[in-house]
Amino acid sequence: MKKTILTGIRPTGSLHLGHFAGALENWVRLQNDYECFFLIADYQVSDYADDIDRVRDSVWQVALDWLAVGLDPQDNHFVIESLVPQHAELSVLLSWFMPLGRLQRNPTLKAEMADLETGKKGVPVGFFVYPLMQVANILLPRANLVPVGEDQLPHIEMTREMARRFNRDFADVFVEPDALVGRVPRLVGTDGQAKMGKSLNNAIFLKDDAATVTRKVMGMYTDPTRLRATDPGHVEGNPVFMYHDAFNPDVAEVNDLKERYVKGAVGDVEVKKKLAVALNHLLDPIRERRARFEANPSLVKEALEKGSNEERAVAEETMARVREALRLDYIARGMPAAAAP
Ligand code: TRP
Q: Residues with beta carbon inside 6 Å of ligand 1?
């Protein structure tokens, strides 16, 4: 029996290199060793409620990106959260056991809520409870492992606590999952200022064509203290070299560039051109697969439909046990003697 993975993403845009190095790569690597549920978390887009068209489009973009990086929907499950409403049901039931203060102290949630406040959108209640929905997402198929980006670790810790508490107080229904963070936990954006993000204009998307990638790389933030190619440059903290380290498999080339860079013996243009070549080399097969699926939308649709149906069956098993553990099985138990006339 294979162990189970559940992991997911919110459908709020296309996926980029940060997603790839932070999580997706692990998903691809582990997908044959685990039974995987890859979740498109469309209940968790309350901060995009004014832009549902974007959400609708992103559901397909995310599915295409997944297929493009080589996730296999045959042996695994591509799931749309709202097609498995047990996610919502379990969220409500688990909310009984989630102390308000526990959510308020979640550092990732705190930071995201602060961003929403400054963005003047305010924080919908649905946003405040998304980590709880994520807890339900993970517990529902009784996942053993959750490969995610580093920022998600507080949510996984909440999941473990919830599983322990429920199992102790009611019945042994849930599995306490482990988290797994990717090779590059926090990829900086092309601007060198913030983490790569889909709305910050600092992302290289998996679906960007080669010319776009090259243009973005040539415009990348680099060592600001270096005015001429003959000035000694800084490799440390330089996003162009961070990307070389993360994505250029030719270690000898990278080391040579670094050596010459600190001596002032190579220009930024050459360093960037070589990075663009390496990135396009990485992305070419991803683009090819994406194009194949874009030309075959019915395959994407079938993957989402099949995976969601399959998860619904597992989810219903778990929910039957949860309802019984919480004694919500009123009809099956029948009227208690004391209530009878
Ligand atoms: N919150 C995650 C993110 O923003 C997406 C997500 C939703 C998720 N449900 C999940 C990740 C369950 C792992 C497991 O990236």
A: 6-10, 39, 41, 44, 134, 137-138, 146, 148, 152
* pLDDT 10s digits, 173-203: 999 999 999 999 899 999 999 999 988 899 9
Domain covering 4-187+298-338: architecture: 3-Layer(aba) Sandwich (3.40)
What is the 155 CA–ligand 1 centroid distance (Å)? 9
Instruction: Please give the distance, rounded to the nearest whole angstrom, from the Cα atom of residue 40 to the centre of ligand 1.
Output: 8
What does pTM read for this prediction? 0.95
Cα of 134 from ligand 1 centre, angstroms: 6
* CB count in 10 Å sphere of residue 35: 20
Count CB atoms within 10 A of the CB of residue 5. 26
The CATH classification number of 210-291 equals: 1.10.240.10
- CA 6-9-10 angle, 5° bins: 135
